[in-house]
Each structure stands twice: as C-alpha cells, then as structure tokens.
Amino acid sequence: MKNTTRIITLALVCLLILGALAACAPKTDNIPTDQPTENSGDQTTEAPIAGGYSEDRDVTEDDLAIFNEAMAGLVGVEYTPVKVSTQVVAGMNYRFTCTAKAVTPDAVEETKTVNIFKPLDGPAELVDIV
To answer: What is the pTM of this model?
Structure first.
C-alpha cells in the first residue's frame, strides 16, 4: 500500500509539472499559417534572403511609376517592363526585366535588365541597363 501511495503521488506531481510547463509554453494558435516561412517547402512562398533581391513578380502601377520617373528623357530604345524584383536598402533598388526595342525600322526585340535606385527622399535614378 505504501508503494501504491508513492506511485500515485509521483504521478500527480508529474501531472502538475506538465500542466505548469504547458501553461508557460508560447502560444502558437494566433500565428498565421499562410505567411511565407523559410521551412514552407513551397518555392513560391519562401522567405527572401536578408539583404537580397525578392523573387521576380509582376509589375504594379507603383513600380511602373518609379520606372517611368527614372527613364524619363531616355530616347532611342523603347523599354517595356515585364517583371520586377526589389531590394530594401537606404531606399529601394529595383531590378526590372524588360523587353527592349530600338526605335528604328526592323529593330530586333531583346531582353534587358534595367536597374533603378529610389532613395528615401528624391527622384528615382537609372543605375544601369544590362
């Protein structure tokens, strides 16, 4: 009987400890499950590398406004942005994938990368075209 009492007491103490630990554990029920994570395994929702460019995405109206601001006054070639990726710096770097066609008869369409920097204050600046 003495051993049975000890076993029951030990079991109750273990249950109390487990209950206390469970109460102290961080809550995970309010973490959104649709947010990108590094361990999601889905290539389209992986978290970006810190300091790196984002995945290519479709160009938004805001992106197009930045593009047009930086490309204003550039003549001779018509650039049409198709995709864009961004990098947060002291401002924002934009890497536009564009179709490019010289404004001449029989010009051949090419794919070019247009790099633009938009500082926190001030106009967007064309960095280079590759």
So the answer is: 0.62
